[in-house]
């Protein structure tokens, strides 16, 4: 009886989780047209506690998406426009001299724009490596160290950084160590004709976000804890680890990585794909991770963590094409 009751409770929690996400998506649709895959993966990353690198041309709704999420989740939002002259202290904050209530001089810490729950790091590759590195600690450990004093960020904490794939003059490519801090890399394409018409119609009515609050930060953290309890059978876990290992030409037993990949994914890729797949399972109304969950999330998790060889470029293969070949090859072996 206890096992039956426990299973019923789990199913209720899964149904509630899935229903909450559906409400969040409905509210996002009031402000953002299309981009369903992007929205789904952004929600997964927020709940999983990850960060996102979003590649897309200007004007496709990146800022609007984050602002809308900030209203829906009732969380403070901050936008940082990265430029070549931006300094690390402009991001994290700095110590300043101020007067207290007794008119005495004192040193106080003035928080930078990074001290919010949802951060939009716009055109992050326009800042110098020194400024980019200011985000390393906060993205990985959710804390900032200034003058030997550490400040913790309020949870949930989420960074969505954007890159413009077209304009590359005057940019500084992100180093691999920083790329690895992003759970996903998402590609935001240009909208179709019908979607473009809807965007124009929407913005003619109002430029402001109209989404309503659905949950708060505490609810997101509770959903994160629930996701951690999702069971993972050993076969699925082993499959995910084989997929990450298969990106290493020096380790892989197949010819795909040896032919098309120069450098493989880090252990963070394995952590990201499992953490994210548990959240995805709950969103889909399941209380277990499937092979399909792993396959679907392999693309956003791996596409910024592997480097292609000249052979892939010569054969006109993209990173997603190579990831697809790895998945297909592993599926054959599994059968």
Describe the structure.
This protein has helices spanning 2-28, 36-48, 62-72, 88-92, 129-132, 134-141, 176-179, 193-205, 217-228, 234-245, 255-260, 267-283, 291-302, 310-314, 319-334, and strands at 52-56, 77-81, 93-99, 105-111, 118-122, 143-146, 149-152, 158-163, 184-188, 261-263, 307-308. It is α/β, with parallel strands linked by helices and 335 residues long. The protein folds into two domains: 2-83 and 116-219, Rossmann fold, CATH 3.40.50.300; 230-334, Magnesium chelatase subunit I, C-Terminal domain (Helicase, Ruva Protein, domain 3). The strands form four sheets. A five-stranded parallel β-sheet has the order 2-5-8-1-9. Helix 10 (234-245) packs across helix 12, helix 10 packs parallel to helix 13 and helix 13 (291-302) packs antiparallel against helix 15 (319-334). The longest helix is centred in the N-terminal third of the chain and has 27 residues, at 2-28. The radius of gyration is 21 Å and the shape is globular. The mean pLDDT is 85.
Architecture per CATH nomenclature, i.e. the level-2 architecture of the largest domain: 3-Layer(aba) Sandwich
CATH class of the largest domain: Alpha Beta
Question: Tally the helices: what do you get?
Answer: 15
- Output the strand order for the largest sheet: 2-5-8-1-9
Q: Quick one: how many beta strands? A: 11
- Please state roughly what percent of the residues sit in beta strands, choosing from under 5%, 5-15%, 15-25%, 25-35%, 35-45% or over 45%: 15-25%
Give the ordered list of helices and strands.
HHEHEHEEEHHEEEHEHHHHEHHEHH
Question: What would CATH call the homologous superfamily of the largest domain?
Answer: P-loop containing nucleotide triphosphate hydrolases
Q: Describe the main β-sheet briefly.
A: 5 strands, parallel
Helix content: 40-55%
Number of domains: 2
The 3D shape can be described as globular
Arithmetic mean of pLDDT: 85
Structural class: alpha/beta
Q: What fold name goes in the CATH topology slot of the largest domain?
A: Rossmann fold
What's the end-to-end separation, in Å? 37 Å
